[in-house]
Structures are given as structure tokens and as C-alpha cells.
Amino acid sequence: MRLASTAAELPERPRDGARAIVMTMGALHEGHLTLVRRARELGAQVIVTIFVNPLQFNDPADLERYPRTLEADCALLEAEGVDAVFAPSVEEMYPGGDPVVTVSAGAIGEVFEGAHRPGHFDGVLTVVLKLMHLTSPDVALFGAKDAQQVIAVRAMVRDLAVPVRVEAVPTVRDPDGLALSSRNVHLSRADREAALALPRALAAAAAAARNGDPAADVVRTGTNVLTEATRASAKFAVDYFAALDPRTAQQVPDDHRGEAVIAVAATVGGTRLIDNMTVLIDPEGSP
Asked: Which fold has domain 2-169?
């Protein structure tokens, strides 16, 4: 496996087959490795990028605290058969300081996660586009857990005619249903038990959708589960639980029909968690 700090050090593109890329900030876990395995299925060559992107952090202290575990990450990736790791420095990515020209997420970056973290998706799209230019992939893989990020990246690729296919890989969950996240290590046993309200709320909403309930009732069903969780624990606080349009990330109307992303964000014992589930809302088509 090659470790490259500049694009010039990356291996040549394969003559036959696609180049697949997985973009990360390191501190890898099983969710990341699932993306890598899917990339191996799709690409003759797999490149993983590891770059802690300062543009997507609102708080400098959070940027400073973010774990840097390059040696351990490379060991995991080599075991998965990755062809190259692209781990550029900040100076390599942004010579001369923050870029003057950046990518705007537009309305996608103003709601839900974007409202909670202003400018975050602008920073994400800027680095994603630059990494795509530097690595020239045919396909880029992202975790479906970060649903709004996937929506933003797909919109950018579509609107700017970027010749890269974007694939979202299903969320990896622990046996108890909690979505894998590097933040889960900060949960105490009691916090983790409380956090299970997130997948329960999503499951309840999905069941309501399968039952043929309208969009407003689908959201209400999941919200009721979270309301009980807030009553049971003073350390549990919900940021949002909503049905999003899978192309725009805007909240769907109460009479929406079709696919929707049910998204949730909550803080549990000081740790902020997100999760989502895609459902089909079709009240008139139900039995």
C-alpha cells in the first residue's frame, strides 16, 4: 500500500477498471472499513483519503481535539487491501491559507445539520471537490448515516457536472441498533442506553410509513418515542426529528408522497449523535 502526501505520489490510474475513493478524516472504525470493502467491490484501485479538514469545523477547539491516528489507520487499510492512502497536509491542500474561492451548499447548508453548524457543508463540499480533482476517481463512496452530507455532495456533483458517481453505503450498526460513530466512545453505559431511542424512533417512523400513514403522522410517531426518552433522562435533548426531501434536504410537506429521509439529531450526555432512515411514504398505495 502506498502512502502519499501529494497527488503526484499516488499510483497511476488502473488501465482496466474504475478508481474508487473513500474520503475520511481518519480515526477509522468499522463503518469506514465497510465503505472500503464496498469500494474494493467497485474499483480495480481503491484510494482512501485521510485529511482533517479545518474548513468544516466551527470551533477551533474541536479541530484541535480531533484524533489523528494515521499509523493505526494505515494498518487497518493495508489489511483491507487498499492501494493507496492520500494523507495531505493542510499546507498541501490549502497553500497560502484558507481558499478564497469555496463551494457553497446553498439552501442545503442552511437547514438541520447546516443550521446547527453554520458553514459546515460549505467546508465539506470544498474539500470533497478538491479531493476529487486531485485523485480523479470514477466513484466516491460515502456513509448513508451522514444523509445531509450525501445529499449535498450529490447536488454538487449534479449541478457542477463533476464526472464522479456517488454511492451511499448503508449505515453500519452495533447489535443493539445504535449507528456506528467515533463519538460513541464518549457515551457512558447509561448514555448509550438512552441513545437507543434514536434507532427506536426511526424504526417506529418506518413502521408507520409501511402502515400507510401520511408524512405528518410518520414524523409524529417517531417524535413520540423521543419525547418519552427526554422524560426518562434529563441528559437527553433532541435537536430535530424530521422527514427530508432526499434531493434538497428540505422538510417535506405534511401531505408528501414518495421517498423521504427520516433524520434525527440528539445530544446524549454531552455527545451529539445523528442517524437517519429512508422510507417510502405512500398513504394511498397502502393496503
From this structure: Rossmann fold (3.40.50)
Query: Per residue in 21-67, pLDDT tens?
Result: 999 999 899 999 999 999 999 988 999 999 999 999 888 888 888 88
State how far the Cα of 245 lies from the Cα of 142, in Å rounded to an integer.
Answer: 18
β-pair partners for 275: 264
Q: What is the DSSP-derived secondary structure letter of residue 33? A: H
Q: What is the pLDDT of residues 191-213, one digit of tens each?
A: 999 999 999 999 999 999 999 99
Active centre residues (catalytic):
32
pTM above 0.85, yes or no: yes
127 and 55 Cβ atoms separated by less than 8 Å = yes
SS3 237: strand
Q: Which helix (H) or strand (E) holds 91?
A: helix 90-93
Closest CA to 47 of 139, 182, 168, 180: 139
Looking at domain 182-280, its CATH class is alpha beta
